[in-house]
Specification:
mainly alpha, 3 strands, three-stranded mixed β-sheet
Length: 287
């Protein structure tokens, strides 16, 4: 838990400082050149700063212990934060799609200068470095919010690459900047879709994979010579921890203390192997 908190805070502050500096650089370059694509890219970068602030706030909330109002803890604050990031990206994508269409209609030509090249190259290198750290941290502590922030950085780096490619022909075709702006908006929109689709499914709940169910049954059965017929398995993810509930079948004449002992052994085995806090419901084998 402490390592997860450390990584979230570190990544959050790196993102806030780095993105704020890149926003200023890219926005300045966009204003000087009159490039919609660069200004869109700058706002995409600023959205990373906002999302990182959300990461820090959500990380702090998710670490709060369980209380009377939240008996399963506050871990799902991370999922809510990721959804906010996804919605923010969708709004930015829509706004710049509209702006790109409007600029395409004006047939306004954009001349990309040296400052535009410098700002774009610096952005690509910096954003990919930030993405790599976020992905590394997310794997170390299994954090979906760090992974989402990493994809946010990666999408910004990719959009800057698109702009860099377009700038090579931008001085020859009047429509280049409008098209680049639209492409960047589409990339931001796709990043939003990727983030939102995964997190919404996670919040709604999804069935465990068959391989996991099989492994849980095998782990439980090793604790007893009595066939357990483990079934009705549900896994509930609460961000910082997961809980499992299931049914087992036992002989109807088995003493209560013996049935309780079997349930306890199963709960301990599942927790040791999978980290799940389990609730086992015994029922008569002839049901």
């Amino acid at each position: 838990m402490e390592d997860k908190s450390k990584y979230i805070v570190t990544e959050g502050w790196i993102s806030i400082i780095g993105n704020t500096m890149l926003f200023v650089l890219k926005y300045w370059a966009g204003v000087i050149t009159g490039s919609l694509a660069l200004i869109a890219d700058a706002w995409h970068t600023l959205s990373d700063t906002i999302s990182s602030v959300i990461v820090l706030i959500a990380g702090k909330i998710s670490r709060k212990p369980a209380d009377d109002d939240h008996p399963f803890g506050h871990g799902r604050a991370e999922h809510i934060a990721v959804i906010i990031i996804g919605v923010l990206l969708a709004i930015i994508a829509f706004d710049f799609m509209v702006s790109a269409i409007e600029k395409f209609g004006t047939k306004e030509k954009t001349i990309f200068g040296t400052i535009a090249w410098i700002a774009t190259i610096v952005s690509i290198v910096t954003k990919e470095a930030m993405a790599q750290y976020a992905f590394y941290a997310s794997k170390k502590v299994a954090s979906s919010i760090l992974k989402a922030d990493g994809w946010h950085h990666r999408s910004d780096a990719l959009s800057s690459i698109v702009i860099l490619i377009g700038m090579t022909v931008g001085n020859y075709f009047w429509w280049t900047d409008a098209v680049l702006g639209f492409i960047v908006a589409l990339m931001i929109g796709y990043a939003s879709y990727e983030i939102l689709s995964k997190e919404i499914i996670s919040l709604l709940g999804e069935s465990p994979k068959e391989e996991l169910l099989l492994s849980i049954r095998e782990t439980a059965q090793k604790t007893s010579k009595q066939p357990l017929h483990l079934h009705h398995i549900h896994i509930h993810n609460y961000g910082q921890h997961s809980e499992l509930s299931c049914h087992i079948k036992l002989p109807s004449n088995m003493p209560l203390n013996e049935a309780h002992d079997i349930c306890t052994k199963v709960e301990v085995a599942i927790h040791e192997k999978f980290g799940y806090i389990s609730t086992i419901h015994p029922e008569p084998i002839d049901w």
